[in-house]
Amino acid sequence: MAVLVLAYLVMCLLCGIIVAAYPSLRSRYHDAFERVHRFSGWAVVLMFWPLLLTFSSAQQHSMGQFLIRQPTFWILLILTLAIIQPWTKLRRVKVTPEKLSSHAIRLHFDFANPKLGQGISISQHPLRDWHSFASFTDKYDTPDSKFSLVVSKAGDFTGDIIANPPQHVWKRSVPLYGFGSGIGPCLSFLFDLDAAPTMRVLWQTRTPEQTYGQRVIDLVHKMDPDPVILDTTKGGRIDMLPLAIKMYHEFEAEAVCVISNPKMTKHLVYELERRGILAAGPIFDS
């Protein structure tokens, strides 16, 4: 009976995770999805232990002999350790906020030196929302700190960070690669300009100077001395495809990296690949 009850509880939690992950629900209630996924996932792993132990106690062999011969036991053990390991590196770190505008903030850190393409996951409370951001070096304009990240307003978490700049945040020392959106991931190339490939930057955003500040604009110019920066408040949002194709051919580029919202990213990557141009973009599955 105990095995049956535990099995049904596990199934209910797994069904809850599946429902919360439905694309439209996940997009609309992203913070709730993350909590359901995290806490239900932990609960499932936790309940698998008594489920496995209860099942093994009913076997003819001793519990120890039965468990060490079961792949389920070793998989569950590895899974449990994999969940625990990142939390052993949980740290509360100091952050120096630099409010850029009502839409963006830059957070400066000095606890590490990330590498090209590496980001960090931060939270204002370790058991609540965790969000990952691309990092970039501060050596060009803020030598007092080691690296920083740009947070743009895109939900409750980022909105609260901007409205109430934190002095400390929680972080887990687990390497993350390929995270972030907007101009942040592009600025990651500043970690090593000598090793970074030559590139052209095509950036379309709203009031770039007012939103991100002149210092961020200057960093963009370090990656590309002549970037194409389009202010959507002046000419409206335009189709990036013709410009991207034009710059691709003029620059004789090897590939095009698209970092935008899901709709624009899918559109550009598809249209570029349809024309035989190597293109890549994020899958938005964070």
TrEMBL record:
Asked whether the keyword Amino-acid biosynthesis is assigned, the reply is no
Top-rank taxon, per record: Eukaryota
| UniProt GO BP | conidium formation; regulation of conidium formation; sexual sporulation resulting in formation of a cellular spore
Keyword set for this entry? Membrane, Transmembrane, Transmembrane helix
In the UniProt record, the signal sequence range is none
The record's InterPro entries line, in alphabetical order, gives: Adenylate-forming_domain (IPR052979)
Query: GO cellular component terms?
Result: plasma membrane
For whether the record's keyword set contains Oxidoreductase, the answer is no
Give me the segments passing through the membrane: 6-25, 37-55, 67-84
Give the matching PANTHER family.
Answer: INTEGRAL MEMBRANE PROTEIN TMPA, TRANSMEMBRANE PROTEIN
Q: What is this protein called?
A: Uncharacterized protein
Top-level taxonomy: Eukaryota, Fungi, Dikarya, Ascomycota, Pezizomycotina
